[in-house]
Amino acid sequence: MTEKKRIRWNWVRSGYCCMCGECCNKHNFLDAPSWRDNTDIQLDKEGYCRWFDRDTRLCLIQKTKPLSCVRFPSHPTDIASFPNCTFKFDKIYESENDDK
């Protein structure tokens, strides 16, 4: 009997950070699935990550920021409500039977 190949897909991120700051604001990142249970985030009194400098639009702990920040966004739904974000996602199809 011939085994059927199963097809699955993954999202591959491309692009760059345009420093819009949308993901550093609690009102935005709490809606993103990747952020919901993030305990690494510390907010200032206006609701931004305390390490986000709104004047320079830079992360003040860029070299040591939490892994969740480094990996963000990891899925298209993470940035669905971020109109200025320049990251993009492509769907890549793979066969589960392919050799790796």
Topology:
Blueprint: E1 7-14, H1 26-29, E2 52-53, E3 58-59, H2 67-71, E4 88-95
Antiparallel strand pairs: 1-4, 2-3
Account of the protein in words:
The protein is 9% helix and 20% strand. It has one domain. The chain has helices at 26-29, 67-71, and strands at 7-14, 52-53, 58-59, 88-95. The relative contact order is 0.33. With 100 residues, it is mostly beta strands. The radius of gyration is 17 Å and the shape is elongated. It contains two helices and four strands, in the order βαββαβ.
Order of helices and strands: EHEEHE
Task: Give the mean pLDDT.
Answer: 80
Stretches where pLDDT is under 50 for at least 5 consecutive residues are none
Report on the biggest sheet: 2 strands, antiparallel
Distance between the termini: 24 Å
Overall spatial form:
elongated
- Bin the strand percentage: 15-25%
What is the quaternary state of this protein?
single chain
Helical run tally: 2
- Which sequence of strands runs across the widest sheet? 1-4
SS-based class: mainly beta
The gyration radius over C-alpha positions equals: 17 Å
Kindly give the count of domains: 1
> Which percent range fits the helix content?
under 10%
The strand count comes to 4
State the gist of this model.
The chain has 100 residues and is mainly beta. Helices cover 9% and strands 20% of the residues.
Labels describing this entry:
4 strands; 20% strand; elongated
